[in-house]
Amino acid sequence: MCANYSDASCPGVYWPQSSARCPMSELKKQVCFALYSASNAVMRAYRPLLDKLDLTYTQYLVMLSLWARDEVSLKEIGQETGLDAGTLTPIVKRLESKGWLTRTVSHEDERQKCIRLTEAGRQLQQGVKECCLADNLRNQVDLADAELAELKRLCDRVAAQLGR
């Protein structure tokens, strides 16, 4: 047990201010665990829909970034998605092997790769729209639009404050 917390002071612990630790039974009260669990649940909900399109969730994030702004550097995609180069490079290579994008040397800086959608990559966006990923998720969770907007705002705030 955690001797430094009484039952009254420990039930809502999210980020303890002291170095004392709550017992493992407190796991479900931790914000980090709630975020982790929710993130996993969302990815599990998306997986069957993305499988139909032959996309993983991280590949989907890269494609979303490119559909919003085509002809960008690998670095820009990394900044947009929060994926580091070690993670991003194999994803981009895999998407290129599927014929959805191309990688060429940048004309402005030969050290950079320019990532461009192919016609097949642009057409894939229509398949994603037809799957209605966001609508599918919205139908699975009982949250009002305002609650979903607040949830996104809070997640963005946490990510920004923790350095993403």
TrEMBL record:
It is found in: Cytoplasm. GO terms for cellular component: cytoplasm. Gene3D superfamilies: Winged helix-like DNA-binding domain superfamily/Winged helix DNA-binding domain. GO terms for biological process: response to stress. Keywords: Coiled coil, Cytoplasm, DNA-binding, Transcription, Transcription regulation. SMART domains: HTH_MARR (SM00347). This is MarR family transcriptional regulator. It comes from Aeromonas media.
